[in-house]
């Protein structure tokens, strides 16, 4: 496609229906140009891949080719669990395809309640609130909890949903350097003692797969009188004794005021949630706009989520296998000479750092040709302008598949010249 | 040298570490357009200014600051309110 239209609208003085007003798309021109340059070389578009068929949590057909999936966040492989699928089918039959309503009007079915019950049990917390996506859970809790004169203190590497939650609300926003306890503590001490404060942290940071020093961070936050929110999206089900996440693993879960999570990773469907022990938590159902002003999850989705969450409570063997897979892939890639996001495997995410976007995209395509799908991540989603090939392991990856994956990385890496 | 001059000199010194393109910096220099800093560089730089003066520059406040001169004035105001 050529785009003479875009060029012409950028010319000042050209008569058009807009008069002298610019085309509102002009602001995207640098990105349009960058994409065009990348694709002009015949590269497969890394952000437009279609999975034609999905055989299992670890295998799909892409461009007619059998492809091992290593970038899905489907950590516990619950998407094809027979019990989960049966629960979804039954709910579809009994409750229909959708609720067509808000949680606070006609959109709370028995299944939504059961899903929240499963979460309360999983986390051993008093309250659970299910949102339609994980993005909306952060958006809703952060924008609602922190008012105009309150402060949100957040890690600079926070997920987009956290930044957007800050953007939607009107609190004062104070960022601190990634995983830097001292930077957090200094900032907390500079804030007015009598101001409301919400410290927002993540258990696992999804770009590099590194974990947060929550023990120290929660302690300094509590000392400053702040409430603490931890997003445990990338740890549910396999980090911590009961799979409750990094806060549990580091022994500080009882000091965390809000845990945010998602159904679109370990749980294997879509949706988001917040769990808390705060006695006034339930009022959020009436004041949290991203909860109120959207339709609730379909009955089949909450049924699959509830079944999956309950099965994750007893997923010990899967957990062990997932962590073994992560260790083996991390060690193997390091041995092949790739530069990784963390020196040691800290989670089920392994980030392979590419020298630049061009070689990152070429490597991504070479892997796809080998039959392997990973996530290509690039600025501004990545820290420090890095281009990453992000791999996330699944408990259902067999030992043989991990071996195959390493072989594919070796072949593609040599072809592209990054190792 | 006035307090403001001193602040300007300090901030110019802090800018140098992040001024990878070697742009000539005056009070009128704009962080985004002239220094071509992305949002992450801006956050790192703001953190350096905060630590130098033991103040907080919220993202809300930082969003209103476009030029070096505006930052010098904002730091002066924030220092005043911190010691008050």
Automatic annotation (TrEMBL), chain B:
Signal peptide: none annotated. Keywords: Phosphopantetheine, Phosphoprotein. Residues 2-79 form the Carrier domain. It holds the Pfam family PP-binding. InterPro entries: ACP, ACP-like_sf, PP-bd_ACP. It comes from the Bacteria. This is Acyl carrier protein. It comes from Sphingomonas arvum.
